[in-house]
Specification:
Layout (H helix, E strand, L loop, with lengths): L1 H38 L3 E6 L2 E5 L9 E2 L3 E7 L4 E6 L8 H7 L2 E2 L5 H8 L7 E6 L1 E9 L8 E9 L4 E9 L12 E5 L5 E5 L12 E6 L2 E6 L9
Antiparallel strand pairs: 1-2, 2-4, 3-6, 4-5, 5-7, 8-9, 9-10, 11-12, 13-14
C-alpha cells in the first residue's frame, strides 16, 4: 500500500542519514587523533603501507629513542580498526624496573621491527582509535622517514549501507620547538573536557633518574622527565 511504501521510504532515508552521521563522526575522530599525534611528535621513525612509528619527544635529551618515547599507529586489517601502541608501564613498577625495560635505541634502528616485537608486551598495549575502517594506508613527505615533515593517509570508512574514502594529512611539530615536554600544558579530550598538567602534577617522580608521570600528546606517560626551559641532560 501507499502508506507502507511511504513508511519504508522514510525508514530508508532515516537509516541513510544515521549512516552519514556515523561516517562524519568517525572521520572527525580519525583526523583529530592523527593530527594530534603528528603535532605532538618530532620525527617519523618508520613508515609502511599500514603503519607509522613516531618519536613523540626526546624527553631526556640523549638523542636516542627510548621505548617510552615511541608511538606506533597501525591499521589492524583483521579487525578493521585503527590502533595506537605506546608504553604504559604498570603503576607498581619501581623506577629501576622501568629503566631496565625502557631501552634507548639509536636513530639508525629498525623501529618497525622494534615496535612489532613490543606489541607482544602487556606494557605496550593497543588503544583502539576508530573502527569500521576497511582499508587504510600511510605515506610521508618527503618520502624518506628520516626527513619527513608531513604524514598523509587514506582510509575507507564503512557502515552497513555506505562507504566513504577519506584523505588527509598532518604535519609534525616544527623541529625548532624541540622534543622537551613543556612544564604546563592542556588539551581538550574527545568529550569536551580540558585536561591540565603542570610540573606539580608529576607523580612518583624519582629525583635520581628523572622518571615520573608526564603529560604528552593528550595523555599521561611514564618516563624520564626534563629540565624546564631546555632539554634534560
Amino acid at each position: 500500500s501507499f502508506a507502507s511504501s511511504l513508511l519504508f521510504s522514510v525508514a530508508q532515508a532515516t537509516a541513510a542519514r544515521n549512516d552519514l552521521r556515523a561516517l562524519t563522526v568517525r572521520q572527525a575522530v580519525i583526523e583529530g587523533r592523527l593530527s594530534a599525534a603528528a603535532r605532538s611528535s618530532i620525527k617519523v621513525l618508520a613508515v609502511g603501507n599500514n603503519y607509522i612509528v613516531l618519536w613523540m619527544a626526546d624527553a631526556n635529551g640523549d638523542g636516542q629513542v627510548n621505548i617510552s618515547e615511541m608511538r606506533r599507529i597501525e591499521w589492524d586489517s583483521p579487525q578493521d580498526q585503527l590502533v595506537s601502541y605506546e608504553a604504559a608501564f604498570p603503576g607498581n613498577w619501581t623506577p629501576q624496573q622501568i629503566q631496565t625495560v625502557d631501552i634507548a635505541y639509536p636513530l639508525s634502528s629498525d623501529f618497525n621491527q622494534i615496535t612489532t616485537t613490543l606489541k607482544g608486551q602487556t606494557w605496550f598495549p593497543a588503544t583502539p582509535w576508530a573502527t569500521g575502517i576497511t582499508a587504510m594506508s600511510f605515506s610521508v613527505n618527503p618520502a624518506s622517514a628520516e626527513s619527513a615533515t608531513l604524514i598523509s593517509y587514506q582510509a575507507t570508512l564503512q557502515t552497513q549501507a555506505q562507504s566513504v574514502l577519506m584523505v588527509g594529512a598532518a604535519a609534525l611539530r616544527e623541529p625548532s620547538s624541540g622534543g622537551v615536554i613543556p612544564a604546563s600544558t592542556s588539551s581538550s579530550s574527545s568529550d569536551g573536557t580540558t585536561n591540565n598538567a603542570s610540573s606539580g602534577d608529576s607523580q612518583d617522580a624519582d629525583s635520581t633518574n628523572g622518571y615520573g608521570w608526564h603529560w604528552s600528546g593528550g595523555g599521561w606517560y611514564w618516563g624520564r622527565g626534563h629540565n624546564e626551559g631546555g632539554k634534560g641532560s
